Amino acid sequence: YTTTCTTTHLSEKLCRDILHGYKIYNAEVLIREDCTVDDFIDVVEGNRQYLPCLYVYNKVDTVTIEEVDRLARQPDSVVISCQWDLNLDVLVDEIWAKLDLVRVYTKKRGQPPDFNQPFIMRRGGTVEDLMNRVHRGMASKFKYGLVWGTSAKHTPQRVGKDHVLDD
Q: Against a cut of 0.70, is the pTM above it?
């Protein structure tokens, strides 16, 4: 048992008892941050995955402005009022940002782009990922694509399968 910082939640005996509960009797434990018992158990089990979250507080029209201000200043939180349509656009923007999604619009040759039904993809998706969503056999016949928007260096840009698409 070795620590590189002062621990307020864990001790050597507590770590030993937790490890014995998981039938681990010989282990070198190196703690580099002041973690809680739950954090230590999560590392021992190794099956925890933490996801980003967004706290949404509704009915802020019924509380005081000081309470709304306090809630709005907390990290990862949005205050809304469905009755007054207050901050609903901010909520949508925060959801898009937290989920890390982008909209990709497609167009057929000689026609304008269809801005009504975009493909929704995770940020970092490539042209090949988009083609596989449209049709599986499309990627094998693909030579190049034309891209407009923020992921293109110039308008239009001729790209290959590995080009990363952006909103």
A: no
